[in-house]
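User:
Can I borrow your eye for a moment on a structure tokenisation matter? Would you put together a sequence-and-structure record for a protein of your own picking? Please set it down just below, with no commentary around it:
AI:
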Amino acid sequence: MAPSKSSSTLPYAIAALACWGFALYFPLAEVQKLNLSNSSFLLSIGSAFRAKDQLLLGLCVDVLAVAIPSLLFLLLPLAAAPSSTPLRKRCLQLLGAIKTWAMPEVFALSILIAFIKLGSLAEASIAPGFYFLSLATLLLIYLLQRLPIPEPPHRKSRPAALAYLLAACLLLVPANALPIMTVSTAQGHKSSTIIAGVANLAEHGLWGIAAVVFVASILVPFGKLGGLAWLLFLSHKNPDPSFQGKLYRFIDFIGRWSMLDIFLIGVLASLIEFGSLASISPGPAAPAFAAAVILTIIAVERFPLKQSS
């Protein structure tokens, strides 16, 4: 008898959980400046926000980058167990409910960008925790494709989706107009908006990183709003359920990547903390941007998509 798909994924689920445990334990990146050094851990990103009096941002990062992914990795071996039991079914249902909110792949990319973006502020190096995080993320992506995870039973409501969408639109105004990050050095303080940060990366020749940040922090949020608005108001002009389903799934997929900027700021703030020599702090736009991203994800979940026959 051929082994079941769940039994064949169980070793990968156990490996993913082990890698995630190591990712929590080991530092993700390290920096040195003069005779000072700092390390960034998964568990220290939220603390870095709280140290800058951004309590809600700290809680947001702890939930999205640590708590929910940890629960997800703990559930994977139970969901991949070869026997069909009520416990396994409940684990699969819970995986379906939380997988949208677990963002280790977004966090891993933010570390890479932070590593490149540090530039002249400090000498940086990737630490073992990043490699364990990357491996855990790859295993997670593989397992989410293999396991029979059901779609979560969200309450679908067009008015609710519209309300969340409008709230996100309002929050994106201060998120893009106000500074999202402040860099302090011995030469002074420099604050930058999202678009100014992208321009600064491009000025330093980091076109690839500038493109990634531009897409994740500007194109994706506004693209999500435009796509969801089309589904809410103009989809009757193209009533093809197949096209609407593809657009909806695309919006759902890209939504999480907008948190890249928030994770990036958290990693930088945890690494660059050298008193008067150099420090990085989130600006007033950061909470508004994070809230807008979360609201758009909820809006997508609440949208009542018509299923194709």
